[in-house]
Amino acid sequence: MKSYKIALIPGDGIGTAVIDATWQVLNKAAAGAGFALDGTSFPWSCDFYEKTGAMMPPDGIETLRGFDAILLGAVGWPKRVPDSVSLHGLLLPIRKAFVQYANIRPHRLLPGVEGPLRASAFDILCIRENTEGEYSGAGGRIHNGTGDEVAVETAIFTRKGVERILRFGFEQARKRRGKLASVTKSNAQKYSMVFWDEVTAQVAADYPDIEVANYHIDAMAARMVMAPESLDVVVASNLFGDILTDLGAAIQGGLGYAASANINPERNAPSMFEPVHGSAPDIAHLGIANPIAAIWSGAMMLDHLGESRAAAAVISAIEAATARGIGTKPGQHKTTEITGAIVAALA
Amino acid sequence: MKSYKIALIPGDGIGTAVIDATWQVLNKAAAGAGFALDGTSFPWSCDFYEKTGAMMPPDGIETLRGFDAILLGAVGWPKRVPDSVSLHGLLLPIRKAFVQYANIRPHRLLPGVEGPLRASAFDILCIRENTEGEYSGAGGRIHNGTGDEVAVETAIFTRKGVERILRFGFEQARKRRGKLASVTKSNAQKYSMVFWDEVTAQVAADYPDIEVANYHIDAMAARMVMAPESLDVVVASNLFGDILTDLGAAIQGGLGYAASANINPERNAPSMFEPVHGSAPDIAHLGIANPIAAIWSGAMMLDHLGESRAAAAVISAIEAATARGIGTKPGQHKTTEITGAIVAALA
Ligand SMILES: CC(C)[C@H](C(=O)O)[C@@H](O)C(=O)O
Ligand SMILES: CC(C)[C@H](C(=O)O)[C@@H](O)C(=O)O
């Protein structure tokens, strides 16, 4: 029987609960489709940091490299470890080291879920650049703590980095409704974003079949709320993609529904699958975390592994559960109830 | 009779129509309250650029310095002049040169206007840093046009700049519901945004009466859609404020309702008042631009000039018009009809 080696990183807070739930669902789907998942769990987290002084061991990245895919829950517990330490010590280095440059985030309303908008047409695919740009981590501070203090943070965009994410986006648009929106802020950021616009125009020339539009990030945020039905594939930089996908999650009905895949399209390193939501320390021990975003991310993992039939079965099972009103309102059902309903729908 | 010298910069596209409308309303309000507005109009715009090669004359800033306030329509016509040229040649230099560091943008639902959200509680005040940060204009590109091209854009934050906008925000919170949300992305941008968070904590110590919360920009975008009633004053950097205020405008029902004041709180240079919306070239000659955002911005100008009674009268007149269904749906009423209704309500 075919078997996939999966690295599980539950991480912090509700990460554990949603990964437990996801693992249960994925194994059920695997059994149904005739393949196996061979999971190895890593306790890397803020707990781990408090014990060892690092979010993961020095050879963490090398350890992960041997896996077929990584399933991650959530990282961060700001009251214990500054986010700028925890995220830069675990989540962000994985995305960069494994060149998971395409962060895919589907946003659509699940059956039975009522979003915050009056309008109900909402089905977009965000493609976020995931390795450079505003998250380059380049910068510094001088005159610390004095009235003269200055902090700088440099966004770095490479042609290779911008071009590959745009090409990836265009390919996705071909599989969907043939529309691509590129998001920048070229009216204010005249180096980075003007460059992005230029690359968009160049890459677009290779995709005459795709309808391309350029939006500023502010206008795009407004459009997602006012005219979401006008959008199909949305391609954005690391920061802009981050913002738009939380907004997308909100329009879906909440962070509990937003799935995410950090893809290395060249497949020369493992890809990572994680919900968009964070660790939510405030509800970490209440048993009410919504596992749907993580399970949906797990389905994206199966799809990436080539198990598209099992992936589709998981998505259908999620939809069957929400259509019955399970997991459609925050805190209404326990994590175990939602998971149980999805597992049952798979049977 | 007291008289104020106002510089009018209609700018591009619908800018002219909304400034005409605003000027009519403000003069009516001034007459009612017993003061005069002495306006001088400047044709600085993309038209001007095409004729002269610059968005404004070399002594433009010095010319404006002599005025009590500036009323601006909209700048930009991307098909004719790149935004990165037009905005950096007119709008952005005024904000910076006159140290209009506090960009105030009120967002609330006007009577009769149905926003895109199911929930209808929405009343927040965005305070956006307006002179530095991600809009510093510092950056460059190398290996232009080659596969090795790299573009960098550096956000520069100074302690003075961050501290003064936060203090301004805290003062506003005191006049409202006593809550301040500071927006960063300190989990990913560990120089600039961690610095901002530190300054927030320091300034907050001087305002023990204000309830302070820190949000990441992605979470804030989601919160504005999911739980806007939890927010009061929102303070953000130049870029984050830009994004959140377009989102705020969308939640208000559209860009046609979003007013904005670029304030120099020390009053050692003129402040500038402009709607959040752009020049909308596509509807520039249709006579259907909604002037409410510009008129509301004009009311903020009167308030800044000390004419708070007249300012309040203008706001009430806007509300009287929208309550009657005038200007509440895009394109439904002509600019002149909406203006007429507001002028009539002032009588
Ligand atoms: C936790 C944080 C660093 C992360 C990001 O900004 O990428 C998260 O918000 C996300 O969207 O995956
Ligand atoms: C036109 C543009 C440069 C401007 C900005 O980003 O500041 C506008 O979007 C605004 O919000 O005033």
TrEMBL record, chains A, B:
Gene3D superfamilies given in the database record: Isopropylmalate Dehydrogenase
Organism: Bosea robiniae
Taxon lineage: Bacteria, Pseudomonadati, Pseudomonadota, Alphaproteobacteria, Hyphomicrobiales
Name listed for the protein in its UniProt record: Tartrate dehydrogenase/decarboxylase / D-malate dehydrogenase
Keyword annotations of the record: Manganese, Metal-binding, NAD, Oxidoreductase
NCBIfam families hit by this protein: TTC
Similarity comment text for this entry: Belongs to the isocitrate and isopropylmalate dehydrogenases family.
Keyword Manganese: yes
SMART domains to which the protein is assigned, alphabetical: Iso_dh
Matches recorded under InterPro entries: ICDH/IPMDH, IsoPropMal-DH-like_dom, TTC_DH
Cofactor annotation: Mg(2+); Mn(2+)
Annotated ranges, domain Isopropylmalate dehydrogenase-like: 5-342
